[in-house]
């Protein structure tokens, strides 16, 4: 097992499960690094297939390093009613890629969220991890331009 992965898995203080291991690795590296799946299988006694099923079932997990900036928009039912599709279009135009992807220069990652758990504030998004509610295409555009001007940040998670 990769010693860096091993260290992360060893640092868990609560009950160790497949899910807790995957979360620990993603929090630490920003994504499920190569070797993560077999390492979690080894640690928990689950099969590689089972670990892989869990990792792909939850949209939370990613297998590629994230871009410098995270643009996440909710496309759950409440947000769809409030025209999240217009927001997504705006974000796609801004980044020049489609949803659930990372720009070739690794600057922006666009991700759809199933439900951000803030339906009362629909439509919502998370911009570099910060929840923003009652988004409009204009408000989103302003935020994205501010994000671009802020440059780095390297948010993980
Ligand atoms: S559906 Fe978007 S926050 Fe719940």
Word description of this protein:
Strands 2-3-1-4-5 form a five-stranded mixed β-sheet, with helices on one face. The protein has 157 residues and is α+β, with helices and mostly antiparallel strands. The protein is elongated. The chain has helices at 3-10, 18-29, 36-44, 48-57, 77-81, 84-95, 137-150, and strands spanning 69-74, 101-102, 108-113, 125-127, 130-132. 45% of the residues lie in helices and 13% in strands. It folds into two domains: 3-57, no CATH class; 69-150, Glutaredoxin, CATH 3.40.30.10. It has seven helices and five strands; from the N terminus they run ααααβααββββα. Strand 4 (125-127) and strand 5 form a beta hairpin. Bound molecules: FE2/S2 (inorganic) cluster (FES). Residues 74, 76-79, 115-119, 122, 124 line the site of FE2/S2 (inorganic) cluster.
Condensed summary:
With 157 residues, this protein is an alpha+beta fold. The protein contains 7 helices and 5 strands; from the N terminus they run H-H-H-H-E-H-H-E-E-E-E-H. Residues 74, 76-79, 115-119, 122, 124 line the site of FE2/S2 (inorganic) cluster.
CATH A-level architecture of the largest domain: 3-Layer(aba) Sandwich
Low-confidence stretches: 153-157
Q: Which class of secondary structure composition applies to the elements?
A: alpha+beta
Helical content stands at 40-55%
Q: How large a portion of the residues is in β-strands, by DSSP E?
A: 5-15%
